[in-house]
Input
Amino acid sequence: MTDFKAQFVPPEPNPVVKALIARAMLLRGKPDEFISLLHPDAVLHMIGDRRDCPFYGDFRGHGQILKLLRDVDAEFERVDHRLLNVVIDGDCFAMRQLVEIKHRGSSQTALVVIGHFVRIREGQFFEVFEYADTATMRRLLS
Output
């Protein structure tokens, strides 16, 4: 590798992380299967003001996270989603998605940008920070 490439060409992303992201994208609508991608001691930080949405807060371990996923899926239907970009750095990654969601109660739909920052331990998601466009979520829930 030339000195130029060594300075400016990033290394190949971790293939384990790439595979984990692909599997997560396929399983998100199936909470009972999706939970297998999370480390038993996983922590999910749903970023936002709890006054705007009951799903914001910190959730720890499979039990709390699985309940959250089921509650979110009971409230919202993921109509469509598209991966906007992913940056993988070792055992961490950041990702943005554009998700079309439908509120099951009002049938109102919206496009929501969702960002994730994830740390992986032992081949599973260990710490996840999720941020969904709070203004759009507030509109859907009011």
User: Anything to note?
Assistant: The beta strands are 38-47, 57-60, 76-89, 92-103, 109-121, 124-132. Residues 93 and 118 are 5 Å apart (CA to CA). Residues 61-75 form the longest helix (15 residues). Helices lie at 3-8, 15-27, 31-34, 61-75, 134-141.
